[in-house]
Amino acid sequence: MAGEEINEDYPVEIHEYLSAFENSIGAVDEMLKTMMSVSRNELLQKLDPLEQAKVDLVSAYTLNSMFWVYLATQGVNPKEHPVKQELERIRVYMNRVKEITDKKKAGKLDRGAASRFVKNALWEPKPRNTSKVANKGKNKS
């Protein structure tokens, strides 16, 4: 569309948006061809369980999002369709996977080292000279 003449079937103001949409559809098409070129089992065997979950969730979310767009193009309000609940459900699981990933990245606390840091950082009063007090008591006897 970028090199073509502007079609008079739609307003000139939306030509740029339609060009961007066409480019996006082309990119999605290329990604789908890439994903479909490798068998799912082959792909999942190379990944750990957490990565497998991520692939499954992204695939499900993408398909449901595409169905959302399809419904919108057909004049159906996707906000009133069960696909909305499905997208929310998938989003909840994506957040769970993100939490698990974040926990793995978080640093571990070394209690012994933390205790030493706190102990050395705290102010300790100087002990009073107890020998003077003990000596005063001895002199009077």
Automatic annotation (TrEMBL):
Protein name: Nuclear nucleic acid-binding protein C1D
Classification via Pfam families: Sas10_Utp3
Gene: C1D
Keywords in alphabetical order: Cytoplasm, DNA-binding, Nucleus, RNA-binding, rRNA processing
Organism superkingdom: Eukaryota
Keyword DNA-binding tagged: yes
Subcellular localization, as worded in the UniProt entry: Cytoplasm; Nucleus, Nucleolus
GO cellular component: cytoplasm; exosome (RNase complex); nucleolus; nucleoplasm; transcription repressor complex
Entry's Gene Ontology molecular function annotations: DNA binding; nuclear receptor binding; RNA binding; transcription corepressor activity
